[in-house]
Inverse folding.
């Protein structure tokens, strides 16, 4: 109990001496002053702009002033974000860049509707009280530092001959002078020093507290709105989906070229040669060539069957349970399927789930040395299809490593699904894929 | 005739070897990639090389690049490009250095063993063998509609067979007409299209291809 207390007390008391404190206080100083200045600039421009706009005469100028205020606010927002990153290592992405409109009215309209800029304006306004506290914090710290040096100052400054013996004023952060007490003796300076130390300590923690609040504001008002974040997430997954399907088509072309097409060419060659040999009365060779052609035909059919299954397994038309059963039956490692599906997902989701299961089974077969694979699929939670592939192998699978898993994760994220991997070394490995019922 | 085969699918490599050896030709080397081809041709100096376009490592156009290199370094060796599809830019690149000893055939053509062997022999002998599919693509893409419209259907057939690189006698055999009839058609074509009359088969292939490819 006392150990814990001592540990916490140690943290609290040592805080002022860390580099972090310096950065936090610097942020208070710079950010605070910038905040106050920003507030006044913004409010001036807004006020003037609004009043002029309302007074019909100067509507255009007023609107231009408003737009100027918005643009300046955006820049200020950028400044605060950079301060947050540079001093406090707090990353907030910039909101999406401004897209200008077309035509005079269009441009005015777009500028006035710039959501991110208005949010930046609101930050500038809300920042005033925050900045006030921040400035107070840094001033307290400075005062505290000065107070701490009083014992030394006394010795340095009070020993000039002939000078009047004035009392030293110990600055007091609480009332800035009005409540400051005078120090008459050298011993008294130590009181001032203690006051200074307490001030510095207080300033440190005040700075941390107010900065934490400020950073929250920065994230809420100066970062991309959740809508913008959603859009860039969607753009990213769309690019992945497009890449994915292009790659799949390339694979199909390659498989056809190297598989069925090649076998059919060989078949044509064998039949051509057989036809020639018919005239020569060489029955043995003809039979041999026809046998070869026959084998070519069978192999080509097998290739095409595999290819078709790789594109769309026919069993899927009857639903996931039967398709997964076929998959389990042809798995190298014995696999069992438990299915409990209420509402049937859309075909696209069924296809994704099927290929996820196929990929996971293939992974388990390749890497896990498992004896048994369990496949569970259910729609327990409303609107969610949950696929679990569990193997009793050696474990150690990692969603971050291995391109197969990354591809799977990407495909799952394209439809806003979730992938979870639990694979401690020694096994067992459980991979969970959750997909919405409708893509 | 000495032949080198460059093809990465073993099934087709063996089939081609058998096909050619059956007809009495000597397959002196079979390779599966572009570098192998160049060293085999350097070592054996064959009469003709059958080259698959798509080979390792990238499976795009290794064969074409090796073939162009062969044409530069070993002009005495004919090159027959072999592919599962026709790419017009490939045929254009191949014909850039002239049409002598050059061929471009679809793998489908092996179904007719006699024709395939004839085409190969033509290329080995310094002639040209272009796949009918290549020729019909050129016809379709040609902007010389006006000129081609002046030809009779029979003359168009003769023109197509000429563009494949066949000699007059081969054209006559294909169309089952007399050699004299073919010669008359050829003369008429050359006059109508304004092409210079030329005895040499592969120069005349070039003339025809050039005509088809040029703007109206």
């Amino acid at each position: 109990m006392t150990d814990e207390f001592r540990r916490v007390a140690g943290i609290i008391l040592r805080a002022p001496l860390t580099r972090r404190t310096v950065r936090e206080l610097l942020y208070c100083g710079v950010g605070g002053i910038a905040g106050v200045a920003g507030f006044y600039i913004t409010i001036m421009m807004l006020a003037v702009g609004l009043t002029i706009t309302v007074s019909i005469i100067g509507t255009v100028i007023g609107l231009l002033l408003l737009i100027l205020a918005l643009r300046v606010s955006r820049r200020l927002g950028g400044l605060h974000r950079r301060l947050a990153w540079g001093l406090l290592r707090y990353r907030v992405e910039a909101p999406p860049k401004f897209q200008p409109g077309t035509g005079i009215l269009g441009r005015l309209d777009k500028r006035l509707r710039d959501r991110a800029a208005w949010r930046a304006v609101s930050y500038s306004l809300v920042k005033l009280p925050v900045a006030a506290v921040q400035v107070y914090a840094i001033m307290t710290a400075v005062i505290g530092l000065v107070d701490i040096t009083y014992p030394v100052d006394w010795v340095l400054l009070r020993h000039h001959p002939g000078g009047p013996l004035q009392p030293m004023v110990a600055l007091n952060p609480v009332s800035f002078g009005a409540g400051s007490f005078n120090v008459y003796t050298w011993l008294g300076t130590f009181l001032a020093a203690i006051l200074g130390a307490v001030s510095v300590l207080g300033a440190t923690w005040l700075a941390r507290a107010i900065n934490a609040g400020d950073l929250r504001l920065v994230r809420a008002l100066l970062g991309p709105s959740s809508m913008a974040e959603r859009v860039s997430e969607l753009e990213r997954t769309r690019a992945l989906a497009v890449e994915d399907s292009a790659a799949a088509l390339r694979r199909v072309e390659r498989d056809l070229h190297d598989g069925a097409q090649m076998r059919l060419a060989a078949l044509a060659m064998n039949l051509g040669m057989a036809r020639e040999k018919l005239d020569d009365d060489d029955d043995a060779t003809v039979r041999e060539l026809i046998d070869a052609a026959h084998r070519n035909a069978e192999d080509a059919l097998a290739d095409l069957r595999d290819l078709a299954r790789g594109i769309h397994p026919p069993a899927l038309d009857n639903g996931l349970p039967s398709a997964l059963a076929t998959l389990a039956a042809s798995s190298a490692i014995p696999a069992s399927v438990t299915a409990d599906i209420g509402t049937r997902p859309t075909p696209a989701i069924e296809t994704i789930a099927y290929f996820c299961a196929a990929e996971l089974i293939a992974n388990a077969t390749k890497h896990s040395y498992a004896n048994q694979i369990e496949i569970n699929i259910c729609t327990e939670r409303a609107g969610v299809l949950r696929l679990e592939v569990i193997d009793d192998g050696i474990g150690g699978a990692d969603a971050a490593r291995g391109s197969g898993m990354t591809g799977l994760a990407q495909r799952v994220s394209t439809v806003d699904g979730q992938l979870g991997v639990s694979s401690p070394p020694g096994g067992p490995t459980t991979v969970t894929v959750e997909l919405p019922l409708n893509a | 005739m000495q032949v080198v085969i460059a093809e990465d699918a073993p099934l087709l490599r063996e089939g081609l070897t058998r096909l050619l050896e059956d007809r009495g030709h000597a397959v002196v080397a079979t390779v599966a990639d572009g570098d192998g081809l160049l060293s085999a041709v350097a070592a054996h100096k064959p009469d003709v090389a059958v080259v698959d376009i798509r080979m390792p490592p990238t499976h795009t156009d290794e064969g074409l690049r090796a073939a162009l290199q062969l044409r530069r370094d070993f002009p005495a060796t004919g090159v027959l490009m072999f592919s599962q599809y026709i790419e017009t830019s490939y045929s254009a690149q191949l014909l850039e250095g002239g049409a002598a000893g050059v061929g471009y055939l679809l793998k489908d053509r092996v179904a007719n063993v006699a024709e395939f062997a004839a085409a190969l022999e033509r290329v080995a002998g310094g002639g040209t063998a272009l796949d009918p599919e290549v020729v019909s693509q050129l016809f379709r893409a040609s902007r010389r509609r006006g000129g081609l419209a002046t030809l009779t259907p029979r003359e168009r057939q003769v023109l197509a067979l000429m563009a494949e690189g066949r000699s007059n006698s081969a054209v006559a055999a294909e169309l089952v007409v007399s050699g004299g009839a073919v010669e008359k058609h050829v003369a008429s074509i050359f006059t109508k299209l304004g092409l210079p009359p030329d005895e040499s088969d592969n120069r005349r292939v070039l003339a025809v291809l050039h005509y088809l490819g040029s703007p109206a």
